[in-house]
Amino acid sequence: MSELKPSPLKGISDLPYYGTRGDTITLFAGPCSVESQEQFDEVAQCIADEGLTWIRGGAFKPRTNPHSFQGLGEQGLQIMARAGEAYGLKTLTEVMDSAHCPMVHEYADGLQVGARNCQNYSLLATIGKATAQSRKMVLYKRGLASTIAEWLAAADYLTQDGNDNVVLCERGLRTFETATRFTLDIAAVPLVHKQSMLPICVDVSHPAGVRDLVPSLARAAIAAGCDSLMVEVHPDPQHAKSDAAQQLTLPQFRELVADLRQIAAVFGKTIV
Amino acid sequence: MTDDKNLREIEQHREAIDALDKQIVALLNERQTHALAIRALKPSMHMGLFDAKREEQIVDALLAENQGPLYSDNLREIYAVILKVSKEVPA
Q1: pLDDT 10s digits, A52-64
Q2: What domains does chain A contain, in order, with CATH numbers?
Q3: Is-contact B79 B62, C-beta < 8 A?
Q4: Which of A2, A13, A150 to mutate to test binding with chain B, by most B CBs within 10 Å of its CB?
Q5: More exposed terminus of chain A, fewer Cβ within 10 Å: N or C?
Q6: Rounded to whole angstroms, how far apart are CA atoms A63 and A53?
């Protein structure tokens, strides 16, 4: 990770180049929520056909309204694990509660800390301990109002017991702007590369809020040098149980991947 | 004539502050030279520029040395800026 590979693009004289960590960009794609085996399998098939390695999905959903769909819980984890096995994909899902940590750790290949739990230090410490031996990947999202310094400092809760397999994920900030769901802080990508050795992911679906903004943000994230990307995709977004407006359809997702492979190639990287 | 006396005293303190500030600037730059040298070495050691543990150690050590009149919180605030800026200085 520390070896900087030369990019076909020339850097700017006398300025460090923060755009390159490795030669791959991991794409974490999948539906916002796991809704059924059929729904999840359909997405898994599409992702596997694209030659990608990970699928994401929510089994425990942090919903603003307690009466909104809360996720399928353990049943959702089982659906994910079955699909991961069947289609040869690694699975990534959010842990919302320390009490669920052993269960999620058992089913999933990667554990996600959501933006709303960015400052839940006891959850971070619990996940750090739970993954100390397995070194399963932890994707740690930045809070809606967390500074880079607060986020990087709190990441130590995850790594302090020995798991350095942590990916930071920028997902947009709460600002005065309402035209987007969140304001994507693209500068977080070079800043994390400058200040930390941890890789940086960009979740482009949440800041977009609507699917038509997703492709532009994804291109920008790759150009800024992200190590991984998160995109929400659903076989039938119109009827999705959460985040309907921002999820891409499967055909749109395939086109986006083709598009992003070309952008990545400019930087000497491939999308996996 | 206490006004004149007080004015002279203020002048003397200001001269002392100016002399100290000169030293502080030189010391801050010397400090930054080391910070930049560390920054150049860190990538090969697989260490990030931001190190939460080290920053806490730095502040703890200087609070232990503190004789006042600055309060611990004052020093913490001053050093938060020094540490922030030292990471922001362009390489």
Answers
A1: 999 999 999 888 8
A2: 24-271 (3.20.20.70)
A3: yes
A4: A2
A5: N
A6: 28
